[in-house]
Amino acid sequence: MDMRTNKLAKILVNYSTAVKDGEKVLIEYDDLASPLAREVYKETLRAGGLPYTVSRPSWKNEDFYRYANNKQIEYIHDIEKALVADFNVNIVLLGSENTKSLTSADSSKMVMRALARKHLSKLHQQRSATGELRWVLCNYPTQALAQDAEMSLDEYADFLYQACLMDFNDPVGSWNEFKKRQDEIIAVLNNKDEFMIKGPNADLTLRCGGRIWKNSCGHYNMPDGEVYTTPLENSIDGYIKFSYPAIYRGKEVSGVELWFENGRVVKAMAEKNEEYLLAVLDTDYGARSVGEFAFGTNNNIGCFTKDILFDEKMCSTIHIAMGASYPETGGINDSVIHWDMICDMEEGAVIADGQLIYQNGVFVI
After folding, report:
1. Residue that is last in its domain, among 143, 167, 191
2. Which backbone phi and psi does 326 adopt, to 5 degrees?
3. What's the confidence (pLDDT) of residue 104?
4. Residue 63 dihedral angles phi and psi, to the nearest 5°
5. Which DSSP string corresponds to 142-163?
6. Number of domains, the chain
7. Mapped to the 3 state alphabet, what secondary structure does 38-85 carry?
C-alpha cells in the first residue's frame, strides 16, 4: 500500500472532519477505494469514533437506472433517511471504475430520483450548515480517473496526493496556512457588493452584498481550494461561456453558454449535449438560478481532469453553480441540482464595487 494512503486517512479523520470520541461516523466508499476506506476506518477507531461502513458497488447505479420502474425510483428506504439524519460525520471515498457508466442512462429517471431524494438533500444541507453534520469527499486513485485526466495511474496518484498537500512534511499545518491565506481574501470579499466579471468569454454582473463568503480549505472536499458564496438571487445579468466541459451525473456537456436576466437563465446553448443541458436546467424552478459563485485557488491543480472535485479548485478559474445554494452563505435558492461550471480567467478580470480585485487569474487585493 502507498504510505500516502494512510497519511491521507489521518487528514480526513483528524483534520477534515475532526472526529471526536463517541461520534457516529458513516464511511461510504466505492469498491476500488477500499484500501483508503480501511485506513479511514482504523483512524476513526483510533479517534474514538463509532464507524459504520457502506460499500457502493460499481454496478449499482448502472443497473438501477436501467431496470428500475417509476415506483422503485421514487421509493426511499428508511435506512437512507437514517444515514442522513443520525450520523455526526460522513466521509465519502470515491474510486470510480468507469466514469462513463451513466452516459446512456435515462435522464428523466435521474431527474425523478433527484426529486424523490430532495428532502434528504435539504436535510443534509441544513445539518451541514448548523454544524450538526461534518462531511468530506475524497478521491482514491483509479485507472478510470487517471484516464479521464490523461495520466498514467502513477502520475495521477502523485497529482492527487500533491493536490491534497501530502507532499509537505506537515499537511495539517499546510492546510492551516492555506486557510489563513484565504481568510485574508474573504475579509475583502465580504465587504464587496457588485462584482463585474470581464473576459473573452464573460461579461457578467452579480451582487453579493449581505451574503457570506466561505473558506473551502479541506473540511468538505479533499483536495480543496476555493472561496465561495451565493449571489443575490435576482442580481445576475449578462453572458458567460464556460471554458471547460460541464459534467453532471456522468454526462459531459461542452461549450456551454448562458445568458442571464434578473438572476435567471433566459437562454442556454451547448456545442455538445445541448438537449441534456436544457433538460437539467428545466428540472425544477430553481435550476435556472445560480446557487454559487466561487474562485478556484489551489495552485497544485493546474490542469483539467474531468472531475469536478479537482476542476472547480483549479487556480486561475472561477465557477458558477446552477441550482441549490448553500444555506451557510445566506443563499435561499432551492433546487435538487447543483451543477458547477468552470470558466478560465487567465485573460479575465473581476471588478468589485469599482475596484480591480482579480486579474489574469490572480487576486490583486
Report:
1. 167
2. -95, 120
3. 82
4. -70, -35
5. -HHHHHHTT--HHHHHHHHHHH
6. 2
7. HHHHHHHHHCCCEEEEEEECCCHHHHHHHHCCHHHHHCCCHHHHHHHH
Which residues form the domain of 348?
174-363
Using the structure block, give the residue that is written with the C-alpha cell 450538526: 132
The Cα 35–Cα 221 span in angstroms is: 19
Widest Cα–Cα separation across the chain: 55
One domain for residues 159 and 186: no
What are 296's strand-pairing partners?
226, 317
Among 167, 191, 225, the domain boundary falls at 167
Task: Decide if 91 contacts 28 (C-beta within 8 A).
Answer: yes
Tell me: the pLDDT tens digits for 184-232? 999 999 999 999 999 999 999 999 999 999 999 999 999 999 999 999 9
Helix axes 118-130, 78-85, angle to 10 degrees: 20
Whether residues 180 and 157 fall in one domain: no
Q: 141 with 189, same domain?
A: no
CA–CA separation, 334 vs 326, rounded Å? Answer: 9
How many residues does the structure list for the chain? 365
pLDDT, averaged in runs of 10, over the chain (365 residues): 89 96 97 97 98 94 94 95 95 93 86 92 91 96 95 96 87 91 96 96 96 95 96 96 91 95 97 94 96 96 92 96 94 94 96 97 92
Rounded to two decimals, what is the model's pTM? 0.87
